[in-house]
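Hi Q.,

Before the meeting this afternoon, I wanted you to have the adenosine-5'-diphosphate prediction in hand. No need to reply - just skim if you have a minute. The sequence and ligand are here:
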Amino acid sequence: MSDSKLPVLFVTSEVYPLIKTGGLADVSAALPNALRNMGIDIRLLLPGYPVVLEQLSLIEVHENIRVFPLQDPVRLLAGIMPDGITPVYVVESPALYEREGGPYQDANGKSWYDNPLRFGILSKIAAKFGQHHFLFKPQLIHCNDWQTGLVPAFLNFDSKRKAKTLMSIHNMAYQGVFGPEIIALFGLPPESFNISGLEYYGQVSYLKAGLYYSDWISTVSPTYAKEIQTPEYGCGLEGLLSQRQNKLSGILNGIDTMAWNPESDPNIKNHYSIKKVVNKKRNTQALRTQLNLAPTTAPLLGIITRLAEQKGIDLLIPIIPEIMKSGAQIVILGSGDKGLESSLENLAKTYPKQISVNIGYDEKLAHQIEAAANMFLMPSKFEPCGLNQIYSMRYGTIPIVRRTGGLADTVIDATLENIKNKTATGFVFDKASSDELLLCIQRALKLFHDDKKWTSLQINGMSRDFSWNKRAEEYSLLYQKILSDNT
Ligand code: ADP
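Predicted structure with the ligand bound:
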């Protein structure tokens, strides 16, 4: 096959299991693996955070790279991901990346003051790969989110450019907007600081740079690809995105079907399959005991989320007393916004036998909740793709979601017709309001007592193919299209 050794560099600021703050890390782990299985020579490029350096065994492949005249030189290291599949390059710079705290923020949640430089340097190194300066000669550089948005800009103004670029948006809400001084610092031409360029209301937007200068743009669901061309979802970049709509694709994320498999998940005690969904009940009882919730036959609703405005938890809080009247229970795992954290903790104090609130990040508990819950709540205001509704369907946990982004593309509403034709997999509501959310939850609570219909929803969801293999084929076709596109 002509594409069997297509060299692609996948630049990302996080990858599971090395470092993860959200869905980007899952995609960065699974998609390259699936593409390598298809014969594409895709390799990762990452910043050398302490957790990355600790978990990989790396060798130096390039010393002393002086990226910008006034900056300390960096080193380029190489290794292989812990699962032994995808090769990885790491930019090592103690001054930029080796510090305690998160990849983007310090322990108090404050963005690192030098983020423009930290991700500018990552992007500049990626662009050097695109000049074929290093060992590996990618024909395409696949960039992800604002942290890599300058790669297409650097390459656009580079006469030695050899690689094309794909800019993937995992979330439009994070744009990397910084002061214009970086233009001179990074040696970008002054004309790039323009509305037709990377300028954004007098500042520089790294995401806009990627969207403006890349050869192609993709995002993580077909519906989100349409939504971001509108003012409601485009975060100020809808004009640019609708201008470039002919070069904008939406490809749904897959999931790691090995890690998320109720038949073999090492995080749960009672395994179950589509043939014996009824065994899921043991996990429900076990989690109730583990979290000190009352034994009951009423349903258990799960939530696993970053506690951020996007996720619509503020729509849920006012209707919790009403939900509690039905006897249902809610288990929440999440962290983020301190106000939301304390409102939820107060609700757990009011309803100690019905609500369990777990603040923090806990991979094991996340799996246990998916295995135990009867329903899963995602009332997101926007959701580029979303993974938990997919994990839920795989675990026979019925998702209740807002019709937006990837939620709209993955969950099929339990209308009478969809139940009858065996396509229904969950409950979907339209307007981001507490009233509509409550009505939707009440529809689910009602159907829960119809064992036959409920089991058929579970089976419909559990039999869907959410694997990365299918998605990787779509990316492979897109890569070929970008490389052959001369318009
Ligand atoms: P986003 O990227 O917007 O946070 P996604 O649904 O695409 O949302 O991906 C979130 C990922 O992070 C999922 O794998 C989810 O299970 C996981 N996750 C989010 N919060 C937590 C948490 N507190 N503990 C464990 N896993 C979490």
